[in-house]
Amino acid sequence: MTDFSRLLAERTGSMKASEIRELLKYASVPGVISFAGGLPNPESFPVGGLKKITDKILTEKGTKALQYGTTEGIPELREAIAKRMSELKGFDAKMENITIMSGSQQALDLLGKLYMEPGKVAIVEGPTYLAALGAFRPYGGEIVGVRMDEDGLDTNLLEETMKKLKAEGKVVPFIYTIPTFQNPSGVTMSEERRKHLLEIAAEHDVIVVEDDPYGELRYAGKELPNLKAMDKDGRVVYFGTVSKILAPGLRTGWIIGDEEIIGKFVIAKQAADLCTNTLSQHIIAEAFSSGMVDAHIPEIRKLYSRKRNLMLDMLEDSMPEGVTWTKPEGGMFLWVWVPESINTKEMFPTALEKKVAYVIGEAFYPDRSVKNAMRLNFTYSSDEEIKDGVKRLADTIRDYL
Ligand SMILES: Cc1ncc(COP(=O)(O)O)c(C=O)c1O
């Protein structure tokens, strides 16, 4: 049999089926309680409301909603997003600053396509969103992770890193951050750090990408200004999505930014998929403008807040000494630190024997330098599973120690 892999483009060398995916296969074995997934809870999907809206759209403008749309997205949705983002977050955005994406994952891929190439360095948080690493890698260049602490990205370290890279003659096109209820850590960047980050970005004249899929899922603490709302010179590009406030199956997100930057994304998107699913866009435009989304979000917050509290209580009750964890004020994930003597990848088979799964921490660092951490999702499992699963995890760690 011919080996067709010899015909692949060189850049595909970085597109390896990740070992994480392999590990996660075991997580779906029956009987295993998995905190490894990143899925919203299906109970949070407003099926009835979306059914009514879909029926209305197909009745009132069926042919329009089933036709191709412009690459920028349908005007009704872009306007609804401009209005909502300015009311909710104080963004000074007009329709011209907004383009609809097939999920924010597409925006991440296009970001890599537009700005990465050999010789360039993307700055991300360490740890960062796994699929952002996967999106950037094929386009070449380096990815440098700047460590975080309980106040988010360590901006003093960022400053040092930027200076060092500049001295080495490296070009940094963008800093990618998930400042609010980060995936994977659950941490939120403090207001001072947000200011500092923007100062550093201005000094080095680079783009800041604010990925914000979880911002509306706050269960505790006070609201902080978005980087985009603090942006004075148009260098912040904001990524939003309906995946966590409505449903990920709609595959719809948006980017907001300076018209010139957005224009480049539009050209790149045109080649990728011409336009985002038009039917989804009409449904979402109606869901926003009718107030359905705003009425629904408190339901999601109520469900997830209960699950977060339960997981935090269970961790408190069952974890052995030396184990610490973040206490997210929102979002879907929390981060667990185990003693340094434990490598969570090596411990994974023991966890599976105890019928519990997590995502190993090292996967979220571009250089895989951290071994003693794991990500837990608290939104998907049932309450019973959270109770039993955290106990099993605590037993795993205790046995392993
Ligand atoms: C930080 C972050 N960015 C982007 C995405 C992708 O979201 P979407 O469903 O909008 O493509 C996710 C999904 O989990 C995420 O956690």
SSE blueprint:
Blueprint: H1 19-27, E1 33-34, H2 47-65, H3 75-89, E2 98-101, H4 104-115, E3 121-126, H5 130-136, E4 142-149, E5 152-153, H6 155-167, E6 174-177, H7 191-204, E7 207-211, H8 227-230, E8 236-241, E9 253-256, H9 259-273, H10 278-289, H11 292-318, E10 324-325, E11 333-337, H12 344-353, E12 356-357, E13 359-360, E14 373-377, H13 383-400
Parallel strand pairs: 1-12, 3-4, 6-7, 7-8
Antiparallel strand pairs: 2-9, 4-5, 8-9, 10-11, 11-14, 13-14
Bound molecules: pyridoxal-5'-phosphate (PLP).
Describe this structure in words.
The strands form 4 sheets. Strands 2-9-8-7-6 form a 5-stranded mixed beta sheet, with helices on both faces. Strands 10-11-14-13 form a 4-stranded antiparallel beta sheet. Strands 3-4-5 form a 3-stranded mixed beta sheet, with helices on one face. The termini are far apart. The protein has helices spanning 19-27, 47-65, 75-89, 104-115, 130-136, 155-167, 191-204, 227-230, 259-273, 278-289, 292-318, 344-353, 383-400, and strands at residues 33-34, 98-101, 121-126, 142-149, 152-153, 174-177, 207-211, 236-241, 253-256, 324-325, 333-337, 356-357, 359-360, 373-377. Helix 4 (104-115) packs across helix 9 (259-273). The radius of gyration is 21 Å and the shape is globular. It folds into 2 domains: 4-45 and 295-400, Aspartate Aminotransferase, domain 1 (Alpha-Beta Complex), CATH 3.90.1150.10; 65-293, Type I PLP-dependent aspartate aminotransferase-like (Major domain) (Aspartate Aminotransferase, domain 2, 3-Layer(aba) Sandwich). The chain contains 13 helices and 14 strands. The protein has 401 residues and is an alpha/beta fold. It binds pyridoxal-5'-phosphate.
